[in-house]
Amino acid sequence: MKKEIVAMILAGGQGSRLGKLTKEIAKPAVPFGGKYRIIDFALSNCANSGIKSVGVVTQYQPLELNAHVGNGDSWGLNTHDGGATILQPYTNVDGEKWFKGTAHAIYQNIGFIDRYEPEYLLVLSGDHIYKMDYQKMLDFHKEKKAALTVGVIPVEWEEASRFGLMNTDKSGRIIEFQEKPENPKSNLASMGIYIFDWPRLKQYLIDNQAKNRTMEDFGMHVIPAYLRNSEDIYAYAFRDYWKDVGTIESLWQANMEFLDPDHALNIRDENWRIYSKNPDSPPQFLTKDSKVTNSMIVDGCYVAGEINHSILSHNVKVGKGSVVKDSFIMSNVTIGENVTIEHAIVGENAKLHDGAELIGKEKDIAVLGYSEEIGGLKDDEK
Length: 382
Known about the structure:
One of its GO terms (biological process) is glycogen biosynthetic process. By secondary structure, the chain is of the alpha/beta class.
């Protein structure tokens, strides 16, 4: 069972900035790109990087996420010496039931990690869109003889205060860290990807728990503690596509970018597939009245209207005379006749009755939540 490296995907976040889209499911379970969920990218990166022992730490509204991940079979992780394991909060000897933060979630699961006796621990966020070879980051970590390596990427200055930010010296060593500061000194942002020397991190967590139990979060507590103790912390620069889809606007934008056949994510790359667990659906059907332009239409869809620069997920029905433009439609949505949808995200199982309108703007995306309905006759009109 001994492994050089074990991955832990932190997938328990609520994602409150996604509003009604995360009212009933955790952020990593939010659909993306027609046939994926956000967590598929971290899981696929692990599989493609040859890391087959993966813990998935869940907490907020975990049912749909747990069912989606299962044992990791859809990502090729279900091997005799590996697999994906769902790890949820439980009552321990200290009486603690919930994960208080990212570092506390790892502390609560020391027993799981120690089963594999790893030298290194890879900690990932389950809510970002990107492709990354974690083995290259591990090679960098070893080369630098680092205690901790943090994946980093430059972000727009106006977005910088949303992230953990760092300054480095010429060798790439991290010399200063700010967690979501109001006045950023840097735009070099943490990607929420960490490689730790596991024995050292384990000792930090155990020692702190025995004293004052303040080490709850990597950004707020662990990285500052490493800096205070002059540990060797290095930044691993990532230069490809990466998207934090933590807001309605960023989720919509990432889906619209996904429509570009020359998108940097290169979803059709045979050598780095993004895998998912998908329902068995019949082929899509486009009627003689349909018109589809620059769009993705997934299995099970029935389209009798006009689809322009949009994504239709599994089993979406679009009635005659309806127009869907610059929008992301999640699975099992029913769109009646003569409906207009523009600059919008429509949640799973939603229904837009005949003649309904859902119209947003590029900086103000319209949203219909899960199983919500708009249009149709009101009760006093029936």
